[in-house]
Amino acid sequence: MGELDGKVAIVTGAGQGLGRAHALTLAREGAAVVVNDVHEANVRATAADIEAGGGRALASTESVASWAAMEALVATTVATFGDLHIVVNNAGFLRDHMSFAMTEEEWDSVVAVHLKGHFCLSRHAAVWWRERSKEGVTAPRRIINTTSEAGMFGSAGQANYAPAKGGIVSLTWVLARELARYGVTVNAIAPRARTPMTEGTMAWSSGPIEEGWYRYDPVNVSEVVVWLASDRTSDVTGQVFVTVGGDIERVRPFEIAAAAHTEGPWTPAGLDAARAELFGGQPAEPPPAGLTH
Question: Which residues are catalytic, by number?
């Protein structure tokens, strides 16, 4: 018995890296998997590996940034496998540059794939789930989004990627609130893993890969995806988890750090005088980035 026996999942960006690991792991746990990636050779290789292991797979090369293509993908999934239970929004790529060197195309393409791509597939899945709910068909449904530490803390050189990933956090909260009545949970992960996208970008994604258990193996993140996709987490929604290796951290949403009050309107001088209340001696600069361990 697998954790996901009888489930049907769509995994985007599943041709390599995290998406491929997610697709293979979900299939291992019993899910039929629609493997989506714009790189045809990669996506077909992932689908073939699932089938070679006795699983069920369907290859898809449509762009997640296409509204019509994602609508069609949901319809094709249901026609092929009979239902849809799990959406893993993972597709993405990098076009890093400092803001003053970034092109319009680099901005548009990254935001389209990451943020719009998350919404397109989630929206069309939600339409299907809402209609089934109206018909009295209830089943646990799951959306697992992919954000980033860059999206939560800001990252120099990623004026396209970081806001898109930050928007995914807000989108996760919105969808969690809107879709709860239909039995849908919506959560997000901020993974740290060594993949073709991260190769060489950080010290931990460079150099030889350790033998044995490897902290930055994408499969470590995929186990968290399985947990969020399973029936074990019907009471977990609207959450954001940073995950790397054997560590997982639940991120607290934005909160009020300090407050000041005045009777009547503020003045610049009055606000300057309220610095101690607002900052409490802390530096007025961007928050520190990264994990606490």
Answer: 148, 161, 165
